[in-house]
Amino acid sequence: MAAKSDRKLRIVADNRRARFNYEIGEVFEAGVALTGSEVKSLRQGKATIAESYADTRAGEIWLVNANIPEYLQAGRFNHLPKRPRRLLLHRNQINKLMGAVEREGMTLVPLKLYFNIKGRAKVELALARGKKLHDKRASLREREAKREMAKEARARQRA
After folding, report:
1. 2 pLDDT exceeds 80?
2. Which of 15, 72, 114, 133 is the most buried (most CB within 10 A)?
3. 96, exposed or middle or buried, with CB in 10 Å at 0-12, 13-18, 19+?
4. Cα(101)–Cα(55) distance, rounded to whole angstroms?
5. CB–CB of 126/28 below 8 Å?
6. What is the pLDDT of residues 69-124, one digit of tens each?
7. Distance from C-alpha of 78 to C-alpha of 38, rounded to nearest angstrom
8. What is the DSSP letter of 67?
9. Strands 22-32 and 85-88: what pairing?
10. DSSP label at 76?
């Protein structure tokens, strides 16, 4: 059996689209309050956070619309796949995030859902501002230019 120190960060779900749709600001790591069947389903690697977001409710932060499918062996003790899940943060972090969302009109976007070194389910949460259409076009042009430069550099190395 492998020792606990041999464990690595295991990403379960990645929200790659968020970096295209939002300007990412400050990033936070938050724990997720899960039931047993949700943890089992996550360990199988079945989750999507592509259309999810975080919301503030009654002084707490909740992960909304994250899809963790049912664990088949759980039977009647299963969970609802898209239920809101409480995020575990320090009070000062919660206050900071709530202030940014309410005053500055920013959005809380989950970037990754993963198991940390200790085996705890964590979510990487970012304060983000939505991009306009022209910003998205500019980032597409920028990405295409980087690809072309890399392609030319590889061609020069081969020659």
Report:
1. no
2. 15
3. middle
4. 9
5. yes
6. 888 777 777 877 788 999 999 999 999 999 888 888 788 999 999 999 998 999 99
7. 8
8. B
9. antiparallel
10. G
- On whether the pTM is more than 0.90, the answer is no
66: which 2 tokens? 């994250």
Q: Please list the helix, strand and coil fractions of the chain in percent, rounded to the nearest 5, in that order.
A: 40, 30, 30
**Residues forming a β-bridge with 31:** 88, 122
- Whether the predicted pLDDT of 6 surpasses 60: no
* Distance (Å, whole) CA 34 – CA 91: 20
Quote the DSSP letter at residue 75: G
**The tokens 């949700």 sit on which residue?**
38
Strands 22-32 and 53-57: unpaired
> Which residue shows structure tokens 């030319």?
152
Q: What is the structure's pLDDT at 7?
A: 55
